[in-house]
C-alpha cells in the first residue's frame, strides 16, 4: 500500500520504514554501480598494460574513495539519488532543447546526429562526449589535438570572478573521454568532495561553495585567455566586461540558463529549497534564441531609399552570437515590389573571429602555413564580416538600394546558424530569430550627380 508523506501519514511508522528501505536500496545500488565501474576500469587497464606492475597515479587527479573515477564518473550514477536533476541533464526535461542534425560542409556529407540510444533533447552538457560534430571537426581541423579540455575536464577549483586571463582546464586522458561532461565535471573538487550551493549531509563528502551560483563557475569552459572583443570563446569575459561591470544587470549565467525552482535536490530527507534546473538552454533552444535580439527597420528620410537596420541585443548578457567561431547570425534584407517580386537584396553576417584579429581573406596565403591551417582558412575565407553584437549594443547597418519611384515593402530576417562553414543551402541547423517588414515610398531614382554628392558628404 502506498502512503503519501502528508497529513497524519507523515509520522506513520510504516511510512518511515518504507522511506528507509527505499533509501537503503538507493545507497546499495549506488555502491554496487561504483564497484562495478572500478572493477571494469581495472580490468580494462590490466588488459591494456598487462606487464605493468608499477604503482600508477589515480585515474584522473587526486580523488576521494567516493569517486575513484574522478570526473569520468558516469552521470547515471549521480542520477540514482538526484533523479529530477539527472532527468533535466540527460533528457532536457522542461526545456525546448532539440539537437539539430548538422553537416560538416556539403550536403553530400554524412548527416551528423547523436546516437540512437541518446535523447535528442538532452542538454549540450550531457552530449559533449557524444556529439559527433565537434568530435568530427576536431579530427579534421585540429588532428584531434584540441577541444578536449572543456569537453572532458578534470576536477578544478572555481576561479576568481576578477581573474584577468582564463586558462583552459586540464583535460582527462583520452581513454576516459567517453563519459563526456559529467555531473562530476562541475561538482567534484580536486580533493574529491562534491560541491554545491548548500551545506548538506550525503553519502559522500560535500562542501558548500557560494561560487557555484556565480558566473565564475562557467569561466574555464566558456572563456579562453584575455578579453579580445569579437573573438570566439569569450562568453564569460563578454558577460563580465560588457554586461556585469557596466551595470547592465546583476544576473549571472545561472539566472538565465539554469532557472531555479523549489524542490528537493535529492531523494533523501533534505529540505525543499531553491534549486537550479540543469538545462543550460542556448543555441539549441528556439525559445532562448528568440529572446536575444530585436530588429528595427528605419527609412532615414521620406522619399529616399536610405534604409537603416537596427540590430539590438536586448536579451543576452553576452555577445550574440557567442562561443564557437562557427556560430553566426545572418541579417537578410530585401526590397519587394507591390506584386511580390524581390527587386534588391542585401545580407550581413555576425560571427566571432577565429583568432585575435578579424577574419579576413587577405590572410589566406599566410593561413596555409599555419599548423591549424584548415580552421584558419575556413574562417578567413568568410571575412571580413560583422563582429558579434555585444551585450546592450545597438548595431546600425545602412543600405541604399537603387529604386524607381514607387511603393515598396522592405523585409528583414535574423537567422541563427549553428555552423556557418557548411553549405548555406543546408538549413537544417538554422533558426529564424526575427522577422520584420516596413512599407516605404521612394521618390525618383538617384541621379549620378546626387550619388556623387552623397559620397562627398560621407568623406
Description:
This protein is α+β, with helices and mostly antiparallel strands. It has two domains: 57-282, no CATH class; 290-352 and 387-458, Immunoglobulin-like (Sandwich). The chain is built from 13 helices and eleven strands. The strands form four sheets. The protein has a four-stranded antiparallel beta sheet with strand order 8-7-10-11, with no helix packed on it. Strand 5 and strand 6 (307-313) form a beta hairpin. The longest helix has 36 residues, at 13-48. 33% of the residues are buried. The model is unreliable at 1-10 and 38-63 (pLDDT under 50).
What brief labels describe this structure?
3-stranded antiparallel sheet; Immunoglobulin-like; 459 residues; alpha+beta; 2 domains
* Oligomer state of the chains in this structure: single chain
- Spans of at least 5 consecutive residues whose pLDDT stays below 50 are 1-10, 38-63
Placed side by side, the strands forming the largest sheet appear as 8-7-10-11
The coarse overall form would be: elongated
- Evaluate the radius of gyration: 26 Å
User: How widely separated are the two ends?
Assistant: 85 Å
Largest sheet: 4 strands, antiparallel
Round the mean pLDDT to the nearest integer and report it.
84
